[in-house]
Write a structure and sequence with these properties.
Blueprint: H1 6-16, E1 23-27, E2 38-43, H2 45-53, H3 62-71, E3 77-78, H4 79-86, H5 90-102, E4 106-109, E5 112-115, H6 118-121, E6 124-132, H7 137-146, E7 153-159, H8 163-176, E8 179-183, E9 188-192, H9 203-214
Parallel strand pairs: 6-7, 7-8
Antiparallel strand pairs: 1-2, 2-6, 3-5, 4-5, 8-9
Helix pairs in contact: 3-9, 7-8
Length: 226
């Protein structure tokens, strides 16, 4: 099968990718540094069901994701420490923290706050990013490497190419910590595996996580997660 465009390459990859209720796919996800072609979300379906039992109605704003990312993994943090970091007015900071507490995302005790543990909040187990390219494999490796700021698993996707390109791109992918996948016309072949799995604590992680909980993400080939 001859691939004539990057959109066709993306389509064929997704068609062959093993999907189930715990796997959702987004194309052209908007981030602070570009739009990766494919983002694969691996979800804890039971945790998602649990989170939705106490679903909050308040709109989840981007500033909430930054504060959650700042608090995550820490113990109790003073309100003044948070305020000094983000530079919000006292009234805005207090309103923001009260809202996050009402949402059930943080705990507050006097002048101290902390995030709820990840085992209670995170419905995302893995976040996999893939950049597709028909040619210019050196550039697409650089693109994939940039995505490592928000994903532990970033790969490039190429169509069937020469052995020489596979050898050179495999070497560079290993050195840059990204994976290499080749769609050979019939199946997806993972030639270089990414070294790590899981998620990275970033504001984007929390934004995606909470939009998943609220059913506000449109997935490839679906209306929503329900």
């Amino acid at each position: 099968m001859k691939i004539s465009s990057e959109s066709e390459l993306v389509k064929e990859f997704i068609k062959m990718y093993k999907k189930n209720d715990d796997v959702k796919i987004i194309t052209e996800l908007e981030t602070n540094f570009g739009r990766p072609d494919i983002v694969i979300l691996k979800i804890n379906k039971n945790k998602l069901i649990t989170r939705r039992k106490s679903l909050y109605q308040t709109r989840f704003l981007r500033k909430y994701s930054y504060i959650l990312s700042f608090l995550f993994g820490k113990g109790w943090v003073s309100v003044s420490t948070i305020n000094n970091f983000f530079g919000l007015s006292k009234s805005e900071m207090m309103h923001t923290l009260e809202t996050l507490m009402t949402m059930g995302l943080i705990d507050k005790k006097d002048n101290l706050v902390k995030s709820k543990p990840g085992k209670e909040l995170l419905v995302l187990n893995r976040l996999i990013v893939i950049e597709a390219k028909l040619s210019n494999w050196k550039y697409v490796i650089e693109q994939a490497e940039r995505h490592l700021w928000f994903s532990k698993e970033s790969s490039i996707l190429l169509p069937r190419v020469s052995d020489n390109i596979i050898e050179k791109s495999s070497f560079k992918c290993r050195n840059r910590g990204v994976g290499l996948i080749v769609f050979d016309g019939k199946k997806n072949r993972e030639l270089v595996k990414v070294p790590n799995k899981g998620v990275i604590n970033t504001p984007l992680l929390w934004e995606i996580n909470e939009k998943l909980v609220k059913g506000e993400i449109q997935f490839y080939g679906e209306e929503d997660i329900n």
